[in-house]
Write a structure and sequence with these properties.
230 residues; mainly beta; Jelly Rolls; 2 domains; five-stranded antiparallel beta sheet; 3 helices; 20 strands; 47% strand
């Protein structure tokens, strides 16, 4: 993703105006839908977000699209991506398996998987503003997700993003709704103040855990992107 280059175009987009023509064009490019689009399959939808499993066949352009909401991405494949910004500039960017990020509403670009490289596969979570954003911790457990082997990669006003591998959590009080995106096959055990569940997981599966509960999580040998929704 050309994150820095993409962010610099947002101010320019505001100058396009609100006419019907401006709403459909960015410079010489006709805007198409960000999501849904060919290659994107909706796999989960609730009051906190819409989750898409998206593939990018090498050589097939997404078309110039503008993301209407903030969104989280999780990359499932190591590959190369060509990104075209509205000024016509092209950038070739490495895509790293396990990369976790949040990008802003208004991001506008064309994406194309480079021919001869593995097919890109991403999980994209479009964030919604509905639903509770915080759950008060009335117990004695620590507040918020925490686990051995978990690295926080983003902390902003919308999300905490964690890259978690192997280590079990201590018991924690889930103060925010969470999406979990496993990147390896295995078993995720969810326990706490609800009956324990052992869930088979696989690369790219998405699990939603509502907040307001005490949790312990275990997934030996499984890398998981954890999305805490603020």
């Amino acid at each position: 993703m050309a994150k820095c280059a993409s962010l610099t175009i947002l101010a320019a987009l505001a100058a396009l105006g609100a006419s019907p023509a401006a709403a459909e064009m960015v410079g010489k490019y006709t805007l198409v839908s960000a999501l849904p689009r060919p290659g994107a399959t909706k796999i989960l939808d609730n009051n906190r977000g819409t989750v898409w499993d998206v593939i990018y066949p090498p050589g097939m352009s997404t078309g110039m699209h503008r993301h209407p909401v903030d969104f989280v991405g999780v990359e499932l494949v190591e590959t190369l991506l060509k990104v075209t910004t509205p000024d016509g500039k092209e950038h070739i960017n490495p895509i790293h398996r396990g990369e976790i990020y949040m990008l802003p509403k208004g991001l506008t670009h064309i994406e194309e998987n480079v021919i001869g490289k593995p097919q890109r596969n991403s999980i994209l979570i479009e964030l919604k503003d509905a639903g509770p954003h915080d759950y008060a911790n009335t117990g004695k457990d620590a507040s918020g997700f925490t686990a051995d082997g978990a690295k926080k990669v983003t902390d902003n006003n919308r999300v905490n993003l964690w890259d978690w591998t192997t280590g079990p959590t201590k018991t924690f009080y889930q103060t925010h709704d969470m999406y979990l995106v496993p990147m390896d096959p295995g078993i995720l055990t969810v326990a706490g103040d609800e009956p324990s569940k052992a869930l088979p997981v696989a690369n790219g599966q998405v699990i939603f855990l509502p907040g307001g509960h005490s949790r312990t999580l275990q997934a030996p040998g499984v890398r998981i992107a954890v999305v805490e929704l603020k």
